[in-house]
Design goal:
about 280 residues, alpha/beta, 8-stranded mixed sheet
Length: about 280
C-alpha cells in the first residue's frame, strides 16, 4: 500500500561524530527520506579519519572534510561535541550557517554558555536551539529524552519527533533546558564518583562484601556490587566528557553565587578514573 502522507525529505548534519553523532547518524540514515552528513576534528588525523570513514560508510553517512562541507545542504545541524567545545562550534558556525538552517546544540554546556551561543547566532539572523540530553544514549538512541529551548525549538521538535526523537520543548528562551540537565548531572555524576571511590577503597581493604551488604540494607532493592561495576565501566569510557560537563555545572553554580567546589571535585574524580585506572 502506498503511503499517501510520506514524511518530507530531511537533511541532517552532525558536527562531532563521536558516540552521539555515530549512533544518531546511523539511526537517521536508516530511515527513508533522510540524508545524513557529518564532520569531526578527527578527520584531520589520518589514522582516526580512516576509522571514522569506515563507520560512516557502513552506516550510510557522508563524512565531510570540513564543517562547512558537512552542513552545506542540511536543514538541521546537530552540535554534538564535548562541553568545552560548545562555544567554538557556535562561533565557527557563524561563518557557514544560512538563514534556513537551525543549529541544534546537544552539548552539556552551562546555561550562560548556551545563551551566549544563541545570542551570537541570533545577531546574524541565524537559528539556534538548545538541547539537553537527559539520559545515556546507548540504549534508547534517538529516542532518548531531550529537553529543548529556543524560539525555533518547537519547529525542530515537530520535524524530528515524527522521525523517532523524543524532544520536549520546555521554553522559548535559552537556558532552562541546560540548567535542568546540569542540575541533574550534579546528582548523577556525584553518585557515580562516590560509588567508584567507595568501591575502590572497599576492594583495597577487602571489605567489599560487607560494605555492599550494608548499603543494601540501608537502600533496599539495589544490587550495589552490580551498580559499582556498572558505574565504573561508564566512567572509564566517558569520564573525560563527563568531567567537561561537570566543569560546566561548576560554572553554572559559580554564576549563581554558589560554591562550585563539589562539582569541580566530581569532575576531577571522573577524569582521574580515566587517567589513573585501578591496578589489575
Amino acid at each position: 500500500m502506498i503511503n499517501e502522507n510520506p514524511e518530507p525529505a530531511l537533511r541532517l548534519a552532525f558536527i562531532g561524530y563521536g558516540e552521539v553523532g555515530q549512533l544518531f547518524g546511523r539511526q537517521f540514515a536508516q530511515q527513508p527520506g533522510i540524508t545524513v552528513s557529518a564532520y569531526d576534528l578527527k578527520m584531520h588525523d589520518p589514522v582516526q579519519a580512516k576509522a571514522l570513514k569506515g563507520i560512516a560508510d557502513r552506516d550510510g553517512v557522508l563524512l565531510a572534510g570540513s564543517a562547512a562541507a558537512a552542513v552545506e545542504k542540511a536543514d538541521i545541524v546537530f552540535s554534538a561535541v564535548t562541553a568545552s567545545s560548545t562555544r567554538a562550534v557556535a562561533e565557527k558556525a557563524l561563518g557557514y550557517l544560512t538563514a534556513h538552517q537551525v543549529l541544534f546544540d546537544l552539548n552539556s554546556a552551562s546555561p550562560r554558555t548556551k545563551a551566549g551561543c544563541g545570542e551570537a547566532l541570533a545577531a546574524r539572523g541565524l537559528a539556534y536551539v538548545e538541547g539537553a540530553v537527559m539520559a545515556p544514549v546507548a540504549e534508547p538512541g534517538i529516542r532518548v529524552s531531550i529537553l529543548a529551548g529556543g524560539a525555533q525549538a518547537m519547529d525542530v521538535a515537530e520535524r524530528l519527533n515524527p522521525r523517532g526523537m523524543a524532544i520536549r520543548v520546555v521554553s522559548d528562551t535559552i537556558g532552562r533546558a541546560s540548567a535542568t540537565k546540569l542540575c541533574r548531572s550534579i546528582m548523577i555524576k556525584g553518585i557515580e564518583a562516590l560509588i567508584i571511590d567507595s568501591a575502590r577503597a572497599s576492594a583495597a581493604w577487602g571489605v567489599s562484601e560487607d560494605v555492599f551488604a550494608s548499603l543494601g540494607a540501608t537502600f533496599p532493592g539495589q544490587d550495589w556490587a552490580h551498580l559499582a561495576r556498572l558505574m565504573d565501566s561508564r566512567v572509564a569510557r566517558h569520564g573525560i566528557r563527563r568531567a567537561a560537563e561537570m566543569r560546566e555545572a561548576a560554572q553554572m553554580l559559580a554564576e549563581l553565587g554558589l560554591s562550585p567546589s563539589l562539582s569541580e571535585a566530581i569532575a576531577e574524580a571522573h577524569e582521574r578514573r580515566v587517567l589513573q585506572p585501578p591496578a589489575e
